[in-house]
Amino acid sequence: MTGRPNPFVDLAPLPIIGAPMANVGGGLLAAAISRAGGLGFAGFGGADGPDAVAREFDLAAGAPIGAGFMAWALDRDDAPLRAALERRPAVVSITFGALDRHVALVREAGIPVVTQVGDLDDLAAAERAGVDGVVARGGEGGGHGRDSIAMLPLLQAVLERTALPVAAAGGIATRRGVAAVLAAGASAAWIGTRFAAAVESRSSDRNRALLVAAGPGDTVHSRVHDIAKQDAWPVEFGGRALREPLHDEWLGREDELAAIAPIPCSPVYAGQGVGAIRAVEPAAAIVAALAPEHSAGSA
Ligand SMILES: Cc1cc2nc3c(=O)[nH]c(=O)nc-3n(C[C@H](O)[C@H](O)[C@H](O)COP(=O)(O)O)c2cc1C
Questions:
Q1: Mean pLDDT value across residues 268-297
Q2: Is the Cβ atom of 68 under 6 angstroms away from ligand 1?
Q3: What's the 232 CA to ligand 1 centre distance in angstroms?
Q4: Is 51 exposed, middle or buried (0-12, 13-18, 19+ CB in 10 A)?
Q5: What average pLDDT is seen over the chain?
Q6: Ligand 1: does its nearest atom lie under 6 Å from the Cβ of 170?
Q7: Residue with CA nearest ligand 1 atom 6
Q8: For domain 10-204+277-290, is the CATH number 3.20.20.70?
Q9: Which atom of ligand 1 is nearest to the CA of 171?
């Protein structure tokens, strides 16, 4: 109502955002979500160079998409971000680490930039960095993030404290969940897990089957995969994934695991909303299933 630009509502007809998911959500999935009336992100992680950025933007074939990055990976090399800016994404997301330098680069390019916040210190850092919007991301969400505050208490606290546009993330996987966060005052729902088994995702057939079979209690937030793989993730950001034997063996014994790492593992990152995935579906069907009733729908 203020007339302030709001990247969560200005860039798509529907308040449905396909979250960045490195290795899982690339240009195909992002474009399918955007063409269905939402806003899809391609996600890039520590192993993705400028070539991966070029490949995923080519796959999006000109559809308006966002590009998501991890700040700790950009600290080592920001070439992937620079490559993305040349492709003019609709919006950029940068999360997980120090924001200022990377946010400044995106702003200089005249592209809106948002970040996910997992607590109120993250919110303060986001405001200092000058982002155009924040995503209140609760600990029930899939993939990496803090596990300190659940989505609903975090969303309420963030909405009370900031004048920035706010989206909500973590466990939103049905039309009911989308309606709930919009009613609470979020501008949009930022959804990862529900799209992870979509036809257009980069998930393997094995992982799609595991996602379809899983229930809401089948995920664990931990550092065991990052320790097993010797990944460079900052310690404050664990990953929520489907529970598997690696958790049973090493949870609580992370120091011992670190001593024998690296050991092979293949986590299936997913949040507590995973129980809503009943089938492998095209992203457009998922967007239609999530969209508020009586909304504009796809063009
Ligand atoms: C498989 C997977 C990969 C993810 N990768 C990224 C990523 O590359 N960058 C990022 O900012 N967030 C990433 N996330 C977190 C999402 O942006 C978002 O916070 C989360 O999916 C929201 O919770 P939900 O999964 O319950 O919908 C990932 C999430 C999942 C499930």
A1: 93
A2: yes
A3: 17
A4: exposed
A5: 96
A6: yes
A7: 21
A8: yes
A9: 26
